[in-house]
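User: Sequence in, structure out. Go.
Assistant: Echoing your sequence, followed by the C-alpha cells.
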Amino acid sequence: MNIRKALLSDIAGLAKLVEDASKSGMLLYRSEEELTGDIDEFWLVEDQGRIVACCALDIYSSKLAEIRSMAVEDSYQGQGIASNLLDHCILEAKEKGIYEVLTITNRASIFRKKGFGEQLDGQTALILRP
C-alpha cells in the first residue's frame, strides 16, 4: 500500500470512496466537482492501483486547518490506515506552521490517540496544536 497526495487523475476513485462512505453516514457527500477543486488537500492510500482510503487537510489560514473527509474502505479497516493518514495530515500542518488543527467527527477516539483534545462542544469538535 502506498500513501501519497492525490492527483486530478484520482478523482473517479476518490469520488467513489467518498460517495460510499457518505452513504454509510461516515462523512459528508462531496461531488466530483467539489473534490476536483479540493484535490490538493487530499492524502490517499492506494493498493494495487485502487484508492482504498483518503483524508483531507483543509487549510483555512496560517493559524487554522481542518482534517476532514476521512474514509477507509470496509475491507481495509483495522489495519492502521486511518492513523497513518492522520499522521500525514498532522505532519503537513506542522510543516506549514499551522497553529491549530480541528476536526468534527463521530470517531473521536482515533483523534484523541493523536493528541486532539475537546475544545468546542465537548462531543464532536476536537483540536490539536501540532
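User: And one key feature?
Assistant: The chain has a mean pLDDT of 89.
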